[in-house]
């Protein structure tokens, strides 16, 4: 029998707990499985100084680490849902499916976002080369020897992250933020969380852009499945671009330094705007879409009043002692205000902590690779 007391809405505290917990689950699971793999091959690692690097580049190790880390995210979502007494299907927008017209254009929109980001990514790649930063890349060539290997890598790097990361970032984080803050703020904060969680300087810019797009399409369609499909298509296009020979993916205009530096951010922003308009058009809701309404409120200086809930999903009952010592209406209102403030402080504290952890890992990843390249 279904528990009728389950919450169907998330709040900002949920979003910050989900963000921080997701990071810890992903990091701890990755380190634990990595240590286990190293212990299994300890003898080889002790006799050969390069064995550790070879082991980490091994496709089997990559597959195991990726699978375990993604399952850890899903395990956290289930535990979080249980402990916070959340209706899994209602709160995460799982029940509703996006319109067929939206589904039909998502693969093309994913490719469009990648192409519109290319000038910006080329500029960043040029900066990284100048500071001797070389991002580590997964060895996927071994998976491409047969169709089953290709299917496995699609599942590992496209399907699993699309599903489990969406449950965290567009399920918990975005929905919790959107319950209290205007849609644009919720989308930008969730995109920031999403991009920093990858802790990879080379991916941050595009991950932020795709995070904004994912947040927009989920809120616009009120379905997490539109985000899952867009996330999957983005990862699949990126995978195919790595597989296709470079001679078929040449863009001469990307060699123009002035163009990529001046036009990089411009084309990324323009691409996002076009993406949002395309989603609203396919969703048959352009004039009432998030983009149109946000522009309208900005021009008219109107305050957003669409909050469905605040830091408390349901107004809490009076304290247990109220039965013996009845509270006046003023005392009860003060009690609720104090509870709201505590919730806000908790949300900010947890969210900032999660961002700080991601930033620390981000800078560590950047400087460790730079220092290593200088020592070679």
Question: Please, could you describe this protein's structure?
Answer:
By secondary structure, this protein is mainly alpha-helical. Helix content is 73%, strand content 0%. The relative contact order is 0.14. The mean pLDDT is 85.
Quick recap of the structure?
This protein is an all-alpha fold and 376 residues long. The chain has helices at 12-40, 42-47, 51-57, 59-83, 88-91, 100-130, 147-178, 183-197, 201-221, 224-243, 257-282, 290-300, 329-375. It has 13 helices and no strands.
Quickly list its features.
mainly alpha, 13 helices, 73% helix, 0% strand
Distance between the termini: 63 Å
Biggest β-sheet, characterized? none
Extract low-pLDDT stretches.
none
Number of strands: 0
Radius of gyration, in angstroms, nearest whole number: 23 Å
**Strand share of the residues?**
under 5%
Q: Averaging pLDDT over every residue, what do you get?
A: 85
String of helices and strands: HHHHHHHHHHHHH
Q: What count of helical segments does DSSP give? A: 13
Principal-axis shape equals globular
Structural class: mainly alpha
Work out the helicity level. over 70%
């Amino acid at each position: 029998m279904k528990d009728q007391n389950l919450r169907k809405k998330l709040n900002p505290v949920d979003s910050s707990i989900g963000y921080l917990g997701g990071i810890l689950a992903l990091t701890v699971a990755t380190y634990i499985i990595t240590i286990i793999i190293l212990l299994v091959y300890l003898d080889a690692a002790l006799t050969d100084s390069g064995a550790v690097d070879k082991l980490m580049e091994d496709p089997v190790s990559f597959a195991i680490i990726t699978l375990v880390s993604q399952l850890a995210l899903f395990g956290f979502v289930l535990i979080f849902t249980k402990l916070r007494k959340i209706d899994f299907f209602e709160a995460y927008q799982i029940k509703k499916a996006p319109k067929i017209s939206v589904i039909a254009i998502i693969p093309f929109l994913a490719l469009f976002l990648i192409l519109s980001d290319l000038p910006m990514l080329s500029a960043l790649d040029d900066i990284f080369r100048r500071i001797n930063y070389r991002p580590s890349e997964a060895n996927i060539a071994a998976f491409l020897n047969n169709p089953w290997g290709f299917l496995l890598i699609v599942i590992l790097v496209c399907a699993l992250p699309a599903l489990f990361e969406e449950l965290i970032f567009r399920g918990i984080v975005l929905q919790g933020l959107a319950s209290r803050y205007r849609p644009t703020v919720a989308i930008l904060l969730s995109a920031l969380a999403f991009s920093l969680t990858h802790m990879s300087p080379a991916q941050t810019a595009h991950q932020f852009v795709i995070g904004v797009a994912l947040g927009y399409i989920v809120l616009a369609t009120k379905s997490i499945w539109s985000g899952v499909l867009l996330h999957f298509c983005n990862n699949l296009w990126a995978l195919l671009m790595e597989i296709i020979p470079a001679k078929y993916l040449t863009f001469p205009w990307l060699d123009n330094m002035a163009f990529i530096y001046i036009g990089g951010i411009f084309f990324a922003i323009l691409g996002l705007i076009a993406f949002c308009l395309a989603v609203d058009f396919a969703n048959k809701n352009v004039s009432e879409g998030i983009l149109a309404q946000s522009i309208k409120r900005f021009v008219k200086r109107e305050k957003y009043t669409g909050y469905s809930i605040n830091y408390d999903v349901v107004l809490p009952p009076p304290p247990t002692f109220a039965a013996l010592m009845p509270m006046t209406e003023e005392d009860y209102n003060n009690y609720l205000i104090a509870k709201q403030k505590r919730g806000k402080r908790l949300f900010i504290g947890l969210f900032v902590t999660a961002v700080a952890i991601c930033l620390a890992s981000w800078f560590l990843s950047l400087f460790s690779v730079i220092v290593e390249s200088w020592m070679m």
